[in-house]
């Protein structure tokens, strides 16, 4: 998506899901896999078995962004992925 290497941050909103890394430098035009583990199997934790993975990065700085202070102060770009916890026997946890 970007023409240069960018730093991406990864966050989950449910403690049952864990990330192997919380940030990564990703080269331009390269596929990248995000490793997420699920700790909800083998018992009822009483919490939600769904969660969200939020991937964000700072907006690309280019000629248009540097010409305008408002563009330079714009928020990060974000992508949201919805997660669903599944028990080891393959049944949904809901």
Characteristics:
94 residues; 2 helices; four-stranded antiparallel beta sheet; mainly beta; two-stranded antiparallel sheet
Query: What proportion of the residues form beta strands (DSSP E)?
Result: 35-45%
What series of H and E elements makes up the topology? EEEEEHHE
Number of domains: 1
Shape: elongated
| Contiguous helical run count | 2
Walk across the major sheet and give the strand order.
3-1-5-6
End-to-end gap = 35 Å
Instruction: Assign the structural class, choosing from mainly alpha, mainly beta, alpha/beta, alpha+beta, or little secondary structure.
Output: mainly beta
Number of strands: 6
Oligomer: single chain
The main sheet comes to: 4 strands, antiparallel
Helical content (DSSP H or I, runs of 4+): under 10%
The chain-level mean pLDDT equals 79
Residue stretches low in confidence (pLDDT < 50, at least 5 long) are none
For the CA atoms, what is the radius of gyration? 17 Å
Topology record:
Elements: E1 6-12, E2 17-19, E3 23-26, E4 36-38, E5 50-57, H1 63-67, H2 69-72, E6 77-84
Antiparallel strand pairs: 1-3, 1-5, 2-4, 5-6
Structure description:
With 94 residues, this protein is mainly beta. The chain has one domain (6-84). The protein is built from two helices and six strands. The strands form two sheets. It has a four-stranded antiparallel β-sheet, with no helix packed on it. Strands 2-4 form a two-stranded antiparallel sheet.
